[in-house]
Amino acid sequence: MGFLADSLSRIKPSATIAATNKARELKAAGRDVIGLGAGEPDFDTPDNIKEAAIKAIRDGLTKYTAVDGIPELKQAIIAKFKRENGLDYKPSQVSVGTGGKQVLYNALLATINPGDEVIIPAPYWVSYPDIVMLGGGEPVFVGTTIETGFKVTAAALERAITPKTKWFIFNSPSNPSGAAYTHAEIKALTDVLVRHPHVWILTDDMYEHLVYDDFTFATPAQVEPALYERTLTMNGVSKAYCMTGWRIGYGAGPEKLIKAMATLQSQSTSNPSSISQYAAVEALNGPQDFIPRNNAVFKQRRDLIVSMLNQARGLTCPTPEGAFYVYPSCAGTIGRTAPSGKVIGSDEDFVTELLEAEGVAVVQGSAFGLAPHFRISYATATDQLEEAGRRIQRFCGNLR
Ligand SMILES: Cc1ncc(COP(=O)(O)O)c(C=O)c1O
Predict the structure, then answer these.
(1) Contact by Cβ (8 Å): 384, 34
(2) Alpha-carbon gap, residue 165 to 145, rounded angstroms
(3) 20 to 30 A from 331, CA-CA: which of 79, 111, 141, 363?
(4) pLDDT digits over 309-343, tens only?
(5) β pairing state of 360-361 and 34-35
(6) What is the best residue among 170, 206, 363 to mutate for testing ligand 1's pocket, by most ligand atoms within 8 Å of CB?
(7) How many Å apart are CA 115 and CA 113, to the nearest integer?
(8) Residue whose CA is closest, atom 16 of ligand 1?
(9) How remote is the CA of residue 101 from the centroid of ligand 1, in Å?
C-alpha cells in the first residue's frame, strides 16, 4: 500500500522462477542439488541459428526495427503457420514479441476490462492467472483430474462460460502436465466455442513440436475454421529451438487485435531484440532435423522418470503426450512423516522436505492450481535425472 500500485497486490512472483532460484542458491552454498524446476531445454541453441545472429551483428542489423517484428521474420512465421498448421495469415495479422510471454501479456492487457472473465483449465501455466488479474480480469478455473489425463471436458468448458467470458486460454501440450489434446478432443471443445460467439480463444502452442509416440499436434483455428476470426494462435522459438534466452515469441490472429497489441508494445519494450529476430528467421526457415533428434532424447527421459516415479511409494504418474514435464500425484504421501520430523500435509510440504532431505528441487502443484501434485521438468541431463529419480524413491521409501 502507499507507494506501490494496487494492481501489484493482485499478482505474485512466478513460482517456477522462485523454485529455480532457490535451487541455484543452495547449489552456490555448496549443497548437492539437482534442479528439476526450470522449464527450458538443456540442449544448446543449434549452430546455424547462432551464426545467423552473429551475421546480423556483423551486418549492422543492430538498430530499432518495426515494433512487432521485421518483415523477414513475419514472412517466416507466415510460412510456418501455412506449412505446419494449414493456417493462412497476412503480415498485418502477425505479432512478434519478447518471448511468448509478452505476446500473451499484450493480448490480455489489450483486451481485458475490469470484471471480464478468462477461462483457464487447471493445472495451468503460472503466468496466465496473474496476467489476467493484473489487467483487472477474473480467472475462472476449470479443474481437470489425473484420471482424465488433465484434460478439460466439453461439458466443463460449457459450464464455465458466462456472458462475461472474454477468453478461453488453451495450452496443448501443457505446462505443467504435459497433456496434449488430439484433434478429436480439440473438436469437442471447439464445438462448444462455436456456440458462444463472444468468447475468444487464446491458444498457447509453445510446445507444439515436443510430442512423442507419433502423437499428431493440432491447434483450434485449424480444427475449427469457424473460430479463425476470434483466435490468437501463439507460439515461439523458446522451447523447440532451445532459444529461451533469446526472447522471441509470436502470435497470429485478427488484425484489430494484432494492431492493439502493437500499440501496447510500442509503449513498453518496442521491438524485440533485432539480433534475436534474425536468429529466429533462421530457426524457422533453416533445417528442422535437430527437433526429432532432441525429441528422441526427451522421450527416453520421460519414460525413465515416469517409470521411476511409479516405483516410488505414494506417487502416481501418468505418461504425458508432450512438453518436457511430468505431473505426478503425491496424494499417497500425505499424512506421512519426513526425516525432519515434519508431517507432510500438502504438496508444498512434500517439495520442501524433498529438497531438504535429498537435494532435489521440483515445483509444488498448488502453484499450477492442481494439488497434491508436483511438476518435474525432465529437460535435464539423463544421468542427473536418473539420480534424482533414485533420490525421490529413497525419500518416499523413508517416509514413516
Ligand atoms: C505454456 C507456456 N507458454 C509460454 C511460455 C513463455 O515462453 P517464452 O519463454 O517464449 O516467453 C512458457 C515458458 O515457460 C510456457 O511454458
Answers:
(1) yes
(2) 23
(3) 141
(4) 999 999 999 999 999 999 999 999 999 999 999 99
(5) parallel
(6) 206
(7) 6
(8) 175
(9) 6
Beta bridge partners of 175: none
- What is the C-alpha to C-alpha distance for residues 97 and 261, in angstroms, rounded to an integer? 9
Nearest CA among 201, 195, 194, 223 for reference residue 107: 201
In one-letter notation, the amino acid at residue 100 is: G
The closest-lying atom of ligand 1 relative to the alpha carbon of residue 247 is 10
Q: Is the dihedral of CA 288, 223, 368, 198 positive or negative?
A: positive
Q: What is the pLDDT of residue 10?
A: 84
What is the C-alpha to C-alpha distance for residues 301 and 332, in angstroms, rounded to an integer? 24
CB 180 within 8 A of CB 170: no
Cα gap 124→104, rounded to integer Å: 14
Q: How many CB atoms lie within 10 A of CB 233?
A: 26
Q: Nearest-5° angle of CA 56, CA 62, CA 63?
A: 140
Report the nearest atom of ligand 1 relative to the CA of 207.
Answer: 1
Residues 6+ away with beta carbon under 8 Å from 85: 219, 221, 222, 233
Residue for grid cell 509470436: 250
Cell 556483423 -> residue? 58
Q: Could you tell me the three cell numbers for 57?
A: 551483428
User: Is this model's pTM higher than 0.90 or not?
Assistant: yes
Closest listed residue to residue 386, CA positions, set 313, 294, 300, 291:
300
Going from the Cα of 127 to the center of ligand 1, the distance in angstroms, rounded, reads: 9
C-alpha triplet 322, 15, 346: angle, nearest 5°:
90
- Kindly state if the Cβ of 176 falls inside 6 Å of ligand 1: no
